[in-house]
C-alpha cells in the first residue's frame, strides 16, 4: 500500500521561508513524476511545482524564482523549498506521486498547512 507523508508546514511571516517534505512508502518502482499542489481557502487545488524522475522541474508563474522543488529518488522523497513567502501562498500543500509502473496511478499525501501572515 502506497502512503505519502508530508511535513514542514507551519506559520511564517511574509518574507520568510519554509521547507516542505514528502516521503513515500510502499513504492516498488521509482515514480515518473512528483509534485506539489496548493489548495488555498475557498479555491480549487492548483499546481505549484512538479519534477520528473530525470530532474526536470516546472513551476507555476506565481512561485517561479521563489520556490524550488527537488527530489531524492533513492528515498522516494520530494521537497519544496519556499522562500520570500507571501500571504497568497497560504493554504494546504499536497504532494502527489505519479507512478508509471506497473500501471499509471496517482497518489496524494494528506496535506500540510502553510500560513503566511502579513
Beta strands, count: 11
**Would you tell me the overall average pLDDT?**
95
Q: What is the global morphology?
A: globular
Whole-angstrom Rg: 14 Å
Keywords summarizing the entry:
118 residues, mainly beta, 4-stranded antiparallel β-sheet, 11 strands, globular
Plain-language structure description:
The chain is an all-beta fold and 118 residues long. The chain has no helices and eleven strands. The strands form two sheets. Strands 2, 4, 5, 6, 9, 10 and 11 form a seven-stranded mixed beta sheet that branches. It has a four-stranded antiparallel beta sheet with strand order 1-3-8-7, with no helix packed on it. The radius of gyration is 14 Å and the shape is globular. It starts with a strand and ends with a strand. The mean pLDDT is 95.
Give a short synopsis of this structure.
This protein is mainly beta and about 120 residues long.
Q: What's the helix and strand layout?
A:
Blueprint: E1 3-7, E2 10-13, E3 18-25, E4 33-39, E5 45-52, E6 57-59, E7 67-72, E8 77-82, E9 91-99, E10 105-108, E11 112-117
Parallel strand pairs: 2-11
Antiparallel strand pairs: 1-3, 3-8, 4-5, 4-9, 5-6, 7-8, 9-10, 9-11
Amino acid at each position: 500500500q502506497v502512503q505519502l507523508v508530508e511535513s514542514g508546514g507551519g506559520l511564517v511571516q511574509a518574507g520568510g521561508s519554509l521547507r516542505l517534505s514528502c516521503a513515500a512508502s510502499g513504492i516498488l518502482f521509482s515514480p515518473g513524476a512528483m509534485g506539489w499542489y496548493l489548495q488555498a481557502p475557498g479555491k480549487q487545488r492548483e499546481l505549484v511545482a512538479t519534477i520528473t524522475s530525470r530532474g526536470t522541474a516546472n513551476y507555476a508563474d506565481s512561485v517561479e524564482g521563489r520556490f524550488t522543488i527537488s527530489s531524492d529518488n533513492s528515498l522516494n522523497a520530494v521537497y519544496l523549498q519556499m522562500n520570500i513567502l507571501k500571504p497568497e501562498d497560504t493554504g494546504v500543500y499536497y504532494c502527489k506521486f505519479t507512478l508509471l509502473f506497473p500501471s499509471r496511478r496517482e497518489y496524494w499525501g494528506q496535506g500540510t498547512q502553510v500560513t503566511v501572515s502579513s
